[in-house]
Amino acid sequence: MTDHPANVSHGSSQTPAMVWTGRATNRFQWLLAAVGAACLALGVQLAVDSAWSAGIAPLLMSVIGCVLAGLLILFGTLAFVHVAVKVDGDALEVRCGHVGLPRRRILLTHVVGADFAPKVTPRQWGGWGYRWRPEKGTAVVVRRGEGLVLQLGDGRTFTVTVDDAEAAVCFIRDRLHVASAGKITGRSGS
């Protein structure tokens, strides 16, 4: 009996996956977002209930300070509540938060290696979010746990915390092997 491509189910070992997707979430960031919303609400409350007897300048500074601090905390934390990683045949794409910003796209032709990191912590990178350290490279850290580390052709590294990072590493290594085999056959054919 012969299986036809239409009969092959998704996830079968007979057809290789063309796209790998992963995600990581940090529920603690929602608490920080609530703090930002509270600061924003306090600023609005101060602006509406202006029973200050000290004058307009202190009131204005308090309102602006609370609103700006609230917006900064709110949007800064919501941007890193979760991260979505997508690896297709030619690139790795990382999108942060609900809007998808900041976003990073790395072509697999620029990747020379991929490794699994069993424990990535915010302490290693100086906190949560999009991080850069000269001695380590660039990272997107939204939670503590497993991560994917890419070695780039220019000597830098890129790390991202994502669930099932080990599967992502295998997927990327398979794509790198296919790409390098394609380059070898491409050179021998010319």
Q: Which stretches are low in confidence, meaning pLDDT under 50 for 5 or more residues running?
A: 1-15, 182-190
Oligomer: single chain
The count of β-strands is 9
Helix content: 25-40%
Q: Helix and strand succession?
A: EHHEEEEHEEEEH
Structural class: alpha+beta
**Gyration radius, rounded:** 23 Å
- Tell me the number of helical segments per DSSP (H or I, 4 or more residues long): 4
- Residue fraction in strands: 25-35%
Mean pLDDT over the full residue set:
80
Largest sheet: 5 strands, mixed
Sheet with the most strands: spatial strand order = 5-8-9-7-6
Given the C-alpha coordinates, what overall shape results? elongated
What is the CA–CA distance across the termini?
40 Å
Short description:
The protein has 190 residues and is of the alpha+beta class. The protein contains 4 helices and 9 strands.
